[in-house]
Amino acid sequence: MTSMxxxxxPILSAILMTTVFGxxxxxxxxxxxxxxxxxxxxxxATLGLVLCIWLYFAYDHQRGGLQFVERVxxxxxxxxxWFNAVDGINLxxxxxxxxxxxxxxxxxxxxxxxxxxxxxxxxxxxxGVYGVFMSMDLFWIxxxxxxxxxxxxxxxxxxxxxxxxxxxxxxxxxxxxxxxxILPAILYLWAQGGANTFDLFELQRIGxxxxxxxxxxxxxxxxxxxxxxxxxxxxxxxxxHVAAPTAVSMIHAGVLMKLGAYGILRIAMTLCPEGTAYWxxxxxxxxxxxxxYGALVGLAQTDLKYVIGYSSVSHMGIVGLGLATMTVGGIxxxxxxxxxxxxxxxxxxSSVGYIYDRTHTKIIPELGGLxxxxxxxxxxxxxxxxxxxGVPLMASxxxxxxxxxxxxxxxxxxxxxxxxxxxxxxxxxxxVVQKTFYGEKNPRWEHIPDVNPFMAVPRIILVSIIVFFGLxxxxxxxxxxxxxxxxxxxx
Amino acid sequence: MNSLNTYLIxxxxxxxxxxxxxxxxxxxxxxxxxxxxxxxxxxxxxMAFNRFLTPDPVVGQIIALxxxxxxxxxxxxxxxxxxxxxxxxHSINIERAQKLKG
Amino acid sequence: xDALPRDPVLLATVLGTSLPFLSMAVILIFTRANxxxxxxxxxxxxxxxxxxxxxxxxxxxxxxxxxxxQTEWFSSGxxxxxxxxYLDPLSLLMLTIVAVIAFLVQVYSxxxxxxxxxxxxxxxxxxLFAWAMMNMVIAGSLLQLFIFWELVGxxxxxxxxxxxxxxxASQAGKKAFVMTRVGDVxxxxxxxxxxxxxxxxxxxxxxxxxASHSIPQQLIxxxxxxxxxxxxxxxxxxxxxxxxxxxxxxxxxxxxxxxSATMVAAGVYMFSRIFPFFSASPEAMTAALAIGTVTMILxxxxxxxxxxxxxxxxxxxxxxxxxxxxxxxxxxYFAGVYHLTTHAGFKAxxxxxxxxxxxxxxxxxxRIIGKEGGRRLTIPxxxxxIGALALAGVFPFSGFFSKxxxxxxxxxxxxxxxxxxxxxxxLLTAYYSFRLIFYIVLPQGGISASSxxxxxxxxxxxxxxxxxxxxxxxxxxILAGLTLILGLFFEHPLQGFISGMLGHxxxxxxxxxxxxxxxxxxxxxxxxxxxxxxxxFGIALAWFEFGRKDSSRTGFLSCFPSxxxxxxxxxxxxxxxxxxxxxxxxAGLTSLFTKNDRRIxxxxxxxxxxxTEAGGRLFSFLQSGxxxxxxxxxxxxxxxxxxxxxx
Amino acid sequence: xxxxxxxxxxxxxxxxxxxxxVFSLKKTSAPALFHGWALTLAGIGLVVTVAASHQExxxxxxxxxxxxxSQIFKILxxxxxxxxxxxxxxxxxxxxxxxxEFYFLVFVCTLxxxxxxSAVELLTIYVSIELSxxxxxxxxxxxxxxxxxxxxxxxxxxxxxxxxxxxxxGISLLFGVTHTTYMAKLSETLPNVIRQPAAVIGLLLTLxxxxxxxxxxxxxxxxxxVYQGAANQVTAYIATASKMAAAAMIIRFTGLSSAASPDLxxxxxxxxxxxxxxxxxxxxxxxDIKRLLAxxxxxxxxxxxxxxxxxxxxxxASAIYYATAYLIMNYACFMVIMKIAGDGHNLQIKELxxxxxxxxxxxLTLMLGLFGLAGIPPTAGFTGKFLVFAAALxxxxxxxxxxxxxxxxxxxYYYLVVIKAAYLLKPVREYAAVPVDTWTRYLSIAxxxxxxxxxxxxxxxxxxxxxxxxxxx
Lengths: 491, 102, 647, 473
Description:
Helices cover 75% and strands 0% of the residues of chain B. Chain B is mainly alpha-helical. In chain B, helix 1 packs antiparallel against helix 2 and helix 2 runs antiparallel to helix 3. By secondary structure, chain D is mainly alpha-helical.
């Protein structure tokens, strides 16, 4: 490849820059003008969303492959490239990120405490997320990966709730400990690949010995797996989610957890096909355990956010299972599930956030009968719960269908076990819905107003996305499999 | 009797003596003197090597001179610091000074 | 879609099956505030569906074969999912049934639900159900069927838990959803296995493959058994039958529509939908036969002891469903479908009648209703009796014919055991249904004086002429009429219609003659006599115990309290499930895993952190305040390094 | 004349030292005046050093080598000196009557270190080390009215002289084995005789003298006490400038003796692992920020050593890069500390509480500096770690790199504790807002920009360091 490739207007860098400029803009606004800060943040988020939607339509899924490539040599002596591109795998992720950022910022409209810093940090975080999703250079992927992680600490520790400092410290250290495995693996691959390029696809072309693949794959899998809440490295997730403020939970559970799975898919599985084949049984085993385990543990939780945290563990297990199958269907399902689960969890947390902001509790026994006082707010949660159960015509159903078909084919026992997990997940979701929203009207929450139309908008957007892609999965799956089919053919 | 090894052994003996002194003496002056012993062991080495091995007769001696000079300066600085310490602690026993730890 | 305007059939199908969805959306999003409008929209939508269903039935009654529309929904790799309609006699018949009953029930609800705060929501859910159910009926592929099958379950969950502030209601909804989910997961797995093994989920393809044995036998058996789980869950067969009686928490019209006539029949429908496929696997058929039998007997015994009207009909629904499953499993395709049809009619009738009673007396207890003068409400009383007669299988009501057909099929089975089971079932059915009738019509010691001048009277009078009353009465009358004619005039047309589908439809013809009652061992007359006598004997027994002037009004079961208790507690099934759930899941796995999560996994993480800090404290001793120790550390370091080199 | 040009940077600092020597003779104390003078002279020194950055040549009978490598480090030294002098505008930690001596010693020490980075002959190295050490001994003991830290000076002195005694003994043995004191010749002859015990002992003892300067485990023991006990400015100086010199010296030494046996590499690997782990672990439990930074500096010595021990051009280049990044980030932290502890007392972590209100800019600077030390992108610290690890993995030291990363994670913990204090903790008592003068504001903004720029656009600087590393062989 030439050192310089620019296909017209660098749309991807532009998307990335919306966050960076948003960050700078916020920094230069005086802290007391909170209203302006919120408007500016929403503006930049909208810009990013628009660009991502444009990208979604502009991407030619007939042709597939990498498009909108931007490739500039960055550091000569190491072979680091500023290399951004989209294909069917990261396009849904970018769209997801944009949507979740947009709705998340809107959800935090009523924030009053240290507004400036909050939105600045959120933009920093999302800059990292965009970067990971669009970059095709190992160096940059890692840089953006870390950039997206460390703002979590202040975000949780300052604006968080239950045991915020503990949760923040645990989450941050745990996730960055994951990168303690990722960086050596990346550098190892770089060194084995001739120590002159970090370009993902050149490395893929070079190829690695079976031993290197096995070694680096497991390192990358564990490193990214921590962020993907692979059992048994999931315990940060409930604690962190419980502590985090609403928008952060949305972004974190909705998008950040996907970074892990995406990293496994994008780096580990791309560079180490043999390693994947070697470790796929482990992946499948952990994923299946995670699916059932997450649901069962969620059954015993009394804190709404804990419940969602564990449901995320369970759902990310499905993603892992899909990846482990190494088949077109499985990976399609996994990527689609990443997208669907992202939107769904965002909806979950935004509704819980609304309830929590009003009632100042998310302990299920203290709540109850909320449907009477805030029917709309609770209906959002219930819809999310139904999506989580895998009710058909919601996006996640298709994803789960694809994953399970592939899983039963490749790992019959694990697949059946995971299917049994569906029963448990239904049980625990409905249990939560019942205990929280049904039952006698609770006098304590009489006075609480329902969601006003303005604050309902982000939730409605999320709901409609879930249903839309539930009704027309083709619109997403065609894009995904345009890339996945060649990808999976290498296994 | 007049071989290189004799000198080396002596110097090694001196050096270990000095090291032992530094490690074992609680009296700062004593420690300072022990350090001087170590330096002199080095000097002896230089001279011996210079005398027996190297063709060019100067280097070792020059170094020795330098070391002596620096040792003198060192002693001066050391003593001044010890003096300052003595003013504050009214003792030159190092065991009295172990506040900083951990 | 450009075919839409040019093809009236497709147009009708699409319209009829999607209008309810639109009405739901409209109601939920826009007109929740305006109750009248919401209900009108919903009724209008279902009306259109009814019209289109009838139109389809009439236009396609003589169609040479099944009509199929399909378009690609999406495809992933080599797995293509099609969205399509499959219109053949069976689906058309079922579509009509659903449309008719849904329409009647919604009209009925105009009266029944009048003044309820959740009126609009109720109609939204009703529309959701109608939409899901009709789409399930005409689904072209097993996957599509499963999707709408799940949505029907969702609608049932929402409608059962309609009064969510009532704990028992939400509990029942949850129970219904989860228990059916258990079956559905099996169904799902079956589908997956078919996808993997057969690769095509189209219903006609499956039936052809099943009939022509072009799939490996064990694959058929395994998938058929798994799909049977779905039937068990949805149609409340043994052992997953206890959710249905609890589902009676929902309003009576809901019970009439979902939990007797249509939704629970979905299982049976699906069974008959891929009947040729099922019948390709004898094992599956036998299993189904056994399950159906057990269900039928168990449910009827339970119905004998309860005093709650709706409970009685719920149990009887279960047992009748069991009967249908038996019929199908015994190869009686027509008999099963026919009984499904008639049962839909008279069971809905029964529920709606009892609905009127409950609405006016605000109680479910048949004894109280009887005492307070239930029989003064002539229309429901009469209609309910008609329904009960049909249920008991008395000539000339519809139930009689379908039951006869089923008994015929059962008699054709090698072992006579099934036939006897069927007869016992018929007897018990007649017994418990007339037990109820007599409780209401001939209450002990006549109608209590209190109610003559009681507060109910005036309300009855004005209700008799009120809009509310007629809204409820008219559907009941219509259903009663159907119950009368459906058997008398429609057996043979229906038979021709349905079996015809099997004839020039995909599946084998030999199944057809099974379905005609003449094809079994003992003569038709004898069987007829047996069936009728069983029914009549049951009625007589009921009369003897509950109808006579000076009868005990207790029933012979009260002599055996233990058995009574057994029946009353549903053969301890609920208790068993509860215990199993509590011990295995809550007390067992969940608490175990939770402890593990907190203690071991999370504990390990925190432990690592703790030990790291402890390590810090430990090492910090190297940094003692004593100068010489520090020097020693340094000297030792150098020494060790030197040793490392020299050695 | 050309030789004079080669020596110009050192010469400018000699001038500066002389000026303050004169000042120190008369007993007037005019802190502001001295500070002005010192800043000007240091600035001149920096300019001169930068101007002389592309000089090359040998001096003093080839004992003294001026090349890109040495000049880069001289620039770094001058930069550190300028910064420290800049931050000494309120030098509360030292008796006003001794300010002149303070600046005098700082300049002398800088001069010594500049000679150190250029010295390629053992005696020269020895003399320069001693010169810098002596001035540091005095600087450290200069702290006034700090009775709890009075023992610092003597401890530093004792440990220092012992270490230098070890070193000179080692030098004597090396001299005996190789008959030369020129490192160029040394590196030729050493591989042949490396099996002799005398050679080994000599090499190791000499190295231990260097390691002492770098505060590498187990020769680190002076660092915590000194960092804590010395005046803030002096600590800053030791932590920034003197680290540079030590790093340069070790790079140069190993660069010349790169042919040494694999055992040496093993030893260095061991030392770096020990250093990282020890420093990070013990830093976790510290309360005093300066002491904490002392331990973190021990850990960072380990990281720098990773780059050095890979003994490739890229390795040395990465070490240079790392040292530079470390200088910047470390100074950023110390500047904030010196600002907050205006009266020169020792800052405890909890005193940072509510800093984000008292001075948002300083808080931001501190946070970025600490994140940089922790190796979080997009700061220079991350890129430094990345380069160092890349160099190590090029030689296949996977295990070492994994341990390094785990250590980075551990270190993040205590850095986060400090950041938490600055951003989250509610102050127990209301601290006054920190007065930040304009120049400090500019400087901190410059530091922030520098840290991030070096992190994101490392290309030119990396190629510069690689050019410098090439001059080593």
